Amino acid sequence: MGRSQDPRRTSEARHRRLRSNRCAIFTASSAPGRSGKQWLAFLQNHREAIVAFDFFTLATATFRVLYCFFVIEHDRRRILHCNFTGHPSAEWVVQQLREALPEAGPYRYAILDRDSIFNADVIAFLKATGLTPKRTSRESPWQNGTAERWIGSCRRELLDHIIGLNEAHLRRLVRDSMCATTKRTGFTIPDSLGKDTPNRRPVEPKPAADPAVISLPRLGSTTATRGRKQHRKLAQVGLLPTRPACFNGPQ
Question: What's the mean pLDDT when you consider all of the chain?
Answer without folding.
Answer: 75
